[in-house]
Amino acid sequence: xxxxxxxxxxxxxxxxxxxxxxxxxxxxxxxxxxxxxxxxxxxxxxxxxxxxxxxxxxxxxxxxxxxxxxxxxxxxxxxxxxxxxxxxxxxxxxxxxxxxxxxxxxxxxxxxxxxxxxxxxxxxxxxxxxxxxxxxxxxxxxxxxxxxxxxxxxxxxxxxxxxxxxxxxxxxxxxxxxxxxxxxxxxxxxxxxxxxxxxxxxxxxxxxxxxxxxxxxxxxxxxxxxxxxxxxxxxxxxxxxxxxxxxxxxxxxxxxxxxxxxxxxxxxxxxxxxxxxxxxxxxxxxxxxxxxxxxxxxxxxxxxxxxxxxxxxxxxxxxxxxx
Length: 323
Prior knowledge:
Layout: E1 8-11, H1 17-26, E2 28-31, H2 37-46, E3 51-54, H3 62-67, E4 73-76, H4 86-91, E5 95-97, H5 104-119, H6 122-130, E6 149-153, H7 157-168, E7 172-176, E8 186-187, H8 190-196, E9 199-202, H9 216-219, E10 226-230, H10 239-248, E11 251-256, E12 276-278, H11 287-305
Parallel strand pairs: 1-2, 1-3, 3-4, 4-5, 6-7, 6-9, 7-8, 9-10, 10-11, 11-12
């Protein structure tokens, strides 16, 4: 007979091998990353799970939670929770776990890499050399960060680290955030930040108040020749308006680790524009960070299922649940 004492975990996406092995030692695992949403719900009805784990793509909806009889915890291996219906989970008494700041350092590094890649023309230079065009070095169309103003939209765990690195490059830092933040940087409103920054980098969450935060109107408020960086969420930027600004030359360049639709269609105009550097949503996927995120998430889930406390600060809806 099956060991009914072991909890079941529904896994919506792949995780690191070491983390998966640890999860399987403590729970029965149902893998559902190769199924569509309807099929996942059917699986949850047939094999009810005490926990659901996801990364950034697997959607944890109210319908899925209702299908999983006895659900106690939903865990996001990472930070953002835009793929988890937190309100529905809270209403059902389900704890929602994430890992605040787990990827802050690696995401900050990736953001600064994008800033440098765009301003220094890294991709164009590398492609030119591979094509035998050494003479491209004399175009003098690259720029540097020293002496420029960086505008950070959202000075949280990642934005704060980006600000510190940028300051080490000799940049002046201003930021826009609903609340004052530590660090000594100058806090301004979004409009003045856009008007005075040479580089703008986005580090805010995506919700209905921030979707298309940068649209045709706000993009037009940016100073000419600005470089825009988005390693947060693709939906923060109206991509049609962005393409227009890049084509007009009003924006000098764009660096992103996220898009509004991922993966992009082959005819996405951003892929054909110069001074645009796009990476495939890999900012937090270094070997060390990926393993750390997955292992910590597994341990937190197993702790909750065993009636033990997870690591501090990881129960996103803890206050709402009275914990």
